[in-house]
Amino acid sequence: MIERPITDWLPLTKKEVEKRGWDELDVILISGDAYVDHPAFGTAVIGRIIESEGFKIAIVAQPNWKDDLRDFKKLGKPKYFFGVTAGCMDSMVNHYTANKRLRSNDSYTPGGEAGYRPDYATTVYTKILKELYPDVPVLIGGIEASLRRVTHYDYWQDKLLPSILFDSGADMLVYGMGEQPLREILRLVKQGVPLDTIRNVNQISYLQPASEPLGEFNNWDTVEISSHEICLKDKLKYAANFKVVEVESNKWQANRIIQKVADKTLVINPPFKTMEEKEMDISFDLPYTRMPHPKYKKRGPIPSYEMIKFSINMHRGCFGGCSFCTISAHQGKFIASRSEKSIMKEVDQIVKHPEFKGYISDLGGPSANMYQMKGKDESICNRCQSPSCIHPVICSNLDTSHTPLTEIYKKVDAHPSVKKAFVGSGVRYDLLVDDFNKNNQDGNHDVYMEQLVTRHVSGRLKVAPEHTSDATLRVMRKPSFKYFRKFKEKYDNIQAKHNLKQPLIPYFISSHPGCEEADMANLAAETKDLGFQLEQVQDFTPTPMTVAEVIYYSGVHPYTLLPIKTAKTKEEKQNQNNYFFWYKPEFKDWIRKRLHKLNRPDLADRLLKSQKQAAIDKIIGESESAKAKKRKNYFKR
């Protein structure tokens, strides 16, 4: 294997900066993740964009914040600004389980080691920089900054926090996917505009003195939400704020949002329109090495990189709008897709990787099967305020054709160096059920599903029905469980036709707002009846900028302001989770006693009855039903 020159990566050290012949840096990025030069890692994307605009850029990855702060000083002071990100995950989600237990590993660190980033990393890094270099502007971004840009509930402290701009002292925040605002910002600073004076760029947020008048830019209208101080006193006002923020974040012609915070005014400029195919291609076609920086070789593999190094991300965004999910809050509800040419170019790059053995692990995106899907008439999308394109029903204006995706699968399959290309991302199964998705006039969904099941399933297929209770599913913004049953039937028929044995792996969530304990017992019984012993169990975590987080904190739905019950105590959450494990002997007595206490002995019988006894009861039931039918017919005569 030929060693690549160190200058193929963005510099991490003073020595690497000097190798490029630079005596000064324009921008320095501070990141909570190790530096992996790959388009799936935000720090690499932002770094490469800054480089492509002609700036001298270096990265400080996972700096030590506990010592004499030498990592923050080693590259000196940048000419224009510092960029700060906690990494690809919110640092608190990265550090703690749903039960607030400290995790023992970190997927974005060499060797999977924990402890290489602080809690609230964006705030900690920014405060250090402001202390060391008070005259240098700091720009924050990434998912942690994006989802904490306005007053938000912090599950780990169990209280409302103001905008991360207020707590961190940063000069500007870029929210969402940062390519478009970042390029605008870079062009302005290159023209001599100080970063901390920029006010007219879409998709940025900043604080200004409350006494200062708002600037008039781009014919934006302004909507004011309840102040941070009012939210602290009134949970309903906090909940009502969320609806405004979510709606404006997903509009193409959005309003500017303002919120008072102490003696400041928080200003959130409207987002950019979703990136076009050409813009997506430019971002993915930057000169990534597609590998971790060589400095990590002796520290062990980086788990998140190992998982995606032979995968291809074909699109961004998700129009599902699920109540518990942050994807649409950060990436947007409109789908931004790459061109087929760009995707096939990445296939050509992957097959040249020295460790590639012929298998692509994922052809996907946030949801595997939303590639190229958008409104048939974009003028309708332009006016749309709905947070989801498929809840409560699929929008008649949404083009859900799977043909472009099927064609890419076939082209990747035909590549001479690819033995097999799998779909590892979760499949949005409801798009493939004709009873739910009425937009399948030409049968393209069936062609896609046949292609998927016969060619692209790596042993098992992941789908996420999330629950079986229709009431809970409505709160989740997910379709009725009956559609999962129809999907499973369709899936099983294709498997039988081709003599395949690839189990479905359904994902479910316990303790979600709107879910009662009996609902979880029923979920366990229904999935048992379908032959599942659930492995993938997720306890609900209220993450900022989600409907479910607002319900968890305020007790009401932000769109109706009506009460919704939520399991909150450790005991309540554990009780719900226990039902997943009905097949384990140590849970059987607990389940029987608990369900009798809840006056649901019927569920106890369904859950604890052996499969053999259930089969006998089914035969007896069918026999009794047949007898009853005969008697009915006799008396009819």
From TrEMBL:
Gene3D superfamilies named in the record: tm_1862 like domain
Cofactor note: Binds 1 [4Fe-4S] cluster. The cluster is coordinated with 3 cysteines and an exchangeable S-adenosyl-L-methionine.
One Pfam family, short name: Radical_SAM_N
Cofactor(s) essential for the protein: [4Fe-4S] cluster
Signal peptide (residue range): none
Ligand binding ([4Fe-4S] cluster): 318, 322, 325
Record keywords: 4Fe-4S, Iron, Iron-sulfur, Metal-binding, S-adenosyl-L-methionine
Family, per entry: Belongs to the UPF0313 family.
Protein's recorded name: YgiQ family radical SAM protein
Species the sequence originates in: Arcicella gelida
